[in-house]
Amino acid sequence: MKHLKLRLVLLSLFSGLLLTLAWPERGFPALLFIGFVPLLRMEELISANRERFNRFSVFFWSYPGFLLWNALTTWWIVNSTGEGAILAVVLNAMFMSIILAFFSGTKRRLNSKPAAYLALVCYWVMFEYLHLNWDLNWPWLNLGNGFSSYYKWVQWYEYTGAFGGTVWVLVVNIGMFCLLSSEVARWRSSENQIPRKFKISLFRYFAISLLIILPILLSYLMYYSYHEKSRPVNAVIVQPNIDPYSEEYSLPPMQVVSRIMNIAGQAIDSSTNLLVTPESALQQEMWENQIETFESVLLVRQIITKYPNLNIIVGGSTYYAFKPGEKIPHTARKFTQENAWYNRYNAAIMVSRYPALQFYHKSKLTPGVEILPSYGPFGWLEKFAINLGGIVGSLGTDSVRKVYKVIDMPPVAACICYESIFGEFFSQFVKNGAEVMCIITNDGWWGNTAGHRQHYAFAHLRAIETRRSILRSANTGISAVIDQRGDAHDQTKYWVPAVIKATVNANDKMTFYTMHGDYIARWFSWLGALLYFGSLAMWINRKRIRKS
Predict the structure, then answer these.
(1) Which of 75, 83, 101, 520 could form a disulfide with 59 if both were Cys (CB 3.0 to 4.6 A apart)?
(2) 438: left (phi > 0), else alpha (psi -120 to 50), else beta?
(3) 41 neighbors 177 (Cβ within 8 angstroms)
């Protein structure tokens, strides 16, 4: 028994190590195709020795591997919050182990390996889909993201989104495991038919190889046959490199804005259509009800007087005081001295020669920093919000992915920081009419670690899914232009102030994924629910038959 337990923990840890070595931005994603094989072997050993284990054993023995994977790939969260890092790593590993345990239970009840392995794919997809769509979301390690540095392998994401990659990884892992298991069993058998065994093995390995190689070949074909249509937009991107810990929220707001605008001034000319600045560039506590009275806005406005056809996207922390009769959302805060309410936002603001500023409020909020259950019986959780400067606690959001009204250029939209991880969410800006996309972010919280590099790499996938050019402005980290094939141009270096002057092409064509979103996740989720409840029904029926 002791020897068996050692095998289980080693198999679990081996999976964790393989998945870590596969992960962006320096890993090799081909390892994803075998990353779950040791875990599947671990589950098989537990199932084969069921009398020695209890119903929680698969959860217990898979947990070390998932914990290792989470810790080695997302440890950098500790740079901004130690408590948040521990929670993210521990809880996410726990969720993954629960999924494997659900698969093992379903396999036992169905008594059918093909149906059980289909259930595994469905359950894992359901888990990733949940992680995209609940308040405490953390989809960083969704398997489809694993190809973000090798984006030429997954050009077909324009049809499937990142969930196509998740299904691909899981199906190949299951195929690999079944192949290796059958080969081991066959060679251990007493039959002495070596030539026949060799031919069967060759065919099976060839089939698995095709399952890996054909999607990659198709992707390269799509990559080299894709050509952008010329619809030029002249843009300037600013990376001001303001230290988020020691400068951004302590320097006078006007000094911060002046630094950004001085850097931008090196590249702006009369042909520039769009200036993109990073998240939280304006750090005055600005009330949207009186936005034109704030010095930061007036300073930005001065550039428009010189270049009247210029459109400027700038990040800022804003507040809004609700008027009498307006609906009060659960994120609203009450003024201490009067019977009135206000909301706080992480905003992307469009400044142009139009009289009114246009606001988009970040709507996929960072758990623990920008969102916590803060209403009703959960209000006490608000005190655990992580303070990274600026606005702290649950923020207000927008219900619509807004596209800006612009001057003399195709429609443009901006998503803010963490939102760029969410494929379907990102595509909704495009579905609403955006022909050029911007990502504004502040990646300095994590230091010069894999965190900001992984975040940057995910943008390749968003460009492919939507076939939109992306202008990425980071306070510090990696700013760049990403074209419609996912290729990056003019990448900046970490912790170096920079300005990018580039011409990108707008695109008004909708991809299949843009039109249909995460349809794969929805289909597999429904199928997973049917398999789970079907397995329960079969188990109950068998118990009833035994009793009778």
Answers:
(1) 101
(2) beta
(3) yes
Separation of alpha carbons 61 and 77, rounded Å: 25
pLDDT digits (tens, 9 = 90+) for 148-200: 999 999 999 999 999 999 999 999 999 999 988 876 666 666 555 555 555 56
Residue pair 117/111 in contact by the 8 Å Cβ criterion: no
Distance (Å, whole) CA 230 – CA 416 = 27
Helix axes 37-48, 2-22, angle to 10 degrees: 160
Strand partners, 276: 237, 313
Instruction: Give, as one character, the DSSP assignment of residue 269.
Output: -
Q: What is the phi/psi pair of residue 237, to 5°?
A: -120, 135
CA torsion, ordered 421, 424, 429, 431, to nearest 10 deg: 160
Assess whether pLDDT exceeds 90 at residue 419. yes
Q: CA 541 to CA 179: how far, in whole Å?
A: 32
Q: 1-14 burial string, b = 16+ CB within 10 Å, else e?
A: eeeeeeebbebbbb
pLDDT at 385 over 70: no
Please give the single-letter amino acid code of residue 54. N
Q: What is the DSSP letter of 30?
A: G
What is the end-to-end Cα distance of the chain in Å, rounded? Answer: 36
Length of the chain in residues, anyone? 548
Q: Render the burial of 349-369: b for 16+ CB within 10 Å, e for the rest.
A: bbbbeeeebbbbbbbbbbbbb
Task: List, in order, residues 6 or more apart from 179 with CB less than 8 Å away.
Answer: 204, 205, 208
Is the full-model pTM beyond 0.85?
yes
- Sequence-distant (≥ 6) Cβ neighbours of residue 202 within 8 angstroms: none
What is the C-alpha to C-alpha distance for residues 430 and 53, in angstroms, rounded to an integer? 51
The secondary element (H helix, E strand) that includes residue 92 is helix 82-110
CB atoms within 10 A of CB 380: 10
Range 13-17, long-range pairs (CB < 8 A, 24+ positions): 13/64, 13/65, 13/68, 14/38, 14/65, 15/39, 15/42, 15/65, 15/69, 16/64, 16/65, 16/66, 16/67, 16/68, 16/69, 16/72, 17/68
d(CA 106, CA 119): 7
Rounded to whole angstroms, how far apart are CA atoms 341 and 333? 5
